[in-house]
Amino acid sequence: MERAEKVGDMLKVFALEPINEDTMDFFCETIDDQPYAEGLKLVRAIVEKRASLTLFAPGTLDMIIEKSGGSLRDVFAMIMGAARLARRRDDVCIHLADAQWAATELKSARTRCIEQKDYQMLADIHKHHRTEILDKSKMLEMMQGMVVLEYNGDSWHDVHPLVADFLRSIGRLS
Question: Residue 137: CB partners within 8 Å, gap ≥ 6?
Fold first, then answer.
């Protein structure tokens, strides 16, 4: 497997293999909304197999992992978006501002399919991490859009962290 040693190489390396999103969500926080060190460490190790960690300014990769909800598809999408921005500046590393821009782009994509009538359901999922699904077709739609993530280890759900940020910004989550 190729490994990126320069920001420009990241676009090629992170686009090499398709990510099977059905099997690639890792616990990066616990059901109690606390960081899960093992999940963070695992995702970090996967990224390190593809790129030198020196290509990320301090705190940048952690922010990307946290905002991805542990979804490798989203980790890679944010890295690629941030790398494009850094490459335009001819920079040698991805800075936090690059990652924040990429996260904003991904948040827009994740929240595009949410309707106002879905806000309460999403707030309930975030609050209770329910495994009981009342509206199975709506839940499936939300999971397919990666608005809601399922963590199979303990079979619980949560809204994507970027969707939670959106819901907080409109006053639907505290």
Answer: none
- Indicate the DSSP class of residue 56: B
- Count of domains for the chain: 2
Provide the whole-model pTM: 0.84
CATH number for the domain spanning 71: value is 1.10.8.60
Query: Are 41 and 80 part of one and the same domain?
Result: yes
β-sheet bridge partners, residue 158: 149
Helix (H) or strand (E) holding 159: strand 156-159
Q: Which DSSP string do the residues of 84-139 spell out, in sequence order?
A: HHHHHTT-SSB-HHHHHHHHHHHHHHHHTT--GGGHHHHHHHHHH--S--SSHHHH
Q: Which domain holds residue 126?
A: 116-169
- Sort residue 151 into left (φ over 0), alpha (ψ -120 to 50) or beta: beta
Per-residue pLDDT tens for 9-65?
777 777 655 444 444 555 555 556 666 777 788 899 999 999 999 999 999 999 999
Q: Are the C-beta atoms of residues 114 and 163 closer than 8 Å to each other?
A: yes
Q: Are residues 101 and 133 in the same domain?
A: no
Q: Looking at 111, 140, 161, which one is the last position of a domain?
A: 111
